[in-house]
Amino acid sequence: MCWCRELNVDRLSDMLPVLVVHGGAGFIPKERVQLSCAGVQAAVRGGYSKLQGQGSAMDAVVEAVTLLENDHHYNAGLGSVLNAKGEVEMDAIVMDGRYLASGAVSAVRKVANPVQLARLVMDKTSHLCLTGEGASQFARSMGFPEVPGESLITEYARMRWKKNLAADANPVECQMGKMGTVGAVAVDAEGNIACATSTGGMLNKMEGRVGDTACIGCGGYADNRVGAVSPTGEGEAIMKVTLARLILFHMEQGRSAEAAADEALAYMKERVGGLGGVVVVDPQGEWSVRFSSLQMAWAAAQQQTLHYGLYTGEHFTQNIDDPY
Ligand SMILES: NC(=O)C[C@H](N)C(=O)O
């Protein structure tokens, strides 16, 4: 009994802390590949430095997602896709695996960092999700900075919106190519687990549409006893299979993070025709990146090593202190 416990503690200290981030499942146009990959690596470095200081898993995932929201190459915060009216409406969620505490915002506007607002919902209200104007009012009452809606719109987002206004356009199919949602999962040195996800949602979506990202168990879930998941992909499909919780359910049944992710992604594809991707961690610091789309920019940091990749099966490593 005793040796087993000691062995376990050694193992924990070896594998932790760990942080894994993604920049959305889909197809990234050639000219954006390099910057999309650089962005997830910068985000994982930023979040990992929190974990190496006094930061918690929650601090790390919020930091990583904030950095990605500020990077206009992703569909979150600055650079979000536009709704049918040509406006930005965003969803975000955080979850703290210690207490199953969670906070989310949906269809929120005029906020540069929805993930930080989601954290405030978790920390300062008794609710799990605030939407639309109510979320904005809460932000104002907390002194949370408001930005002009226009300032979150990039030329690229406007071009894609216009293209998909055509009568014969298929925005869902077009977006299956280019998802861009961002997310992160982490375990800190204490063994606490957290996740965060943020998105502008689906291209040319109806005004008021709420996607998977704002919904607990769909766009994210974290439980210290099992692990954490942050997904990306077609939100309606993710919601139909409650993808994040489904993966953790498979892990509870004894599957590894990788096997659980594969099984759930295959189920989503077969059952509702949805493609997507996930980053997953378990309490021991084992982690996995799996996707059914063509690409997903991802990066992870563990034991001073930076891991990253883009295509299925791609896995590069380097010392985290080495330059890009
Ligand atoms: N880009 C994405 O991953 C889309 C997101 N899951 C949504 O449907 O809102």
From TrEMBL:
BP term (GO), one: proteolysis
GO molecular function: asparaginase activity; beta-aspartyl-peptidase activity
Domain of life: Eukaryota
PANTHER family, A to Z: ISOASPARTYL PEPTIDASE_L-ASPARAGINASE, L-ASPARAGINASE
Active site: T181 (nucleophile)
Residues annotated for substrate binding in this entry: R209, V210, G211, D212, T232, G233, E234, G235
InterPro entries: ASRGL1_meta, Ntn_hydrolases_N, Peptidase_T2
Class of enzymatic activity (EC top level): hydrolase
Enzyme Commission code(s) on record: 3.4.19.5, 3.5.1.1
Keyword terms, alphabetized: Autocatalytic cleavage, Hydrolase, Protease
Keyword presence, Protease: yes
This protein's encoding gene: asrgl1
Pfam families named in the record: Asparaginase_2
Site positions (Cleavage): G180, T181
Family: Belongs to the Ntn-hydrolase family.
GO annotations of cellular component type: cytoplasm
Catalysed reactions, as listed in the record: Cleavage of a beta-linked Asp residue from the N-terminus of a polypeptide; L-asparagine + H2O = L-aspartate + NH4(+)
Name of the protein this chain belongs to: Isoaspartyl peptidase/L-asparaginase
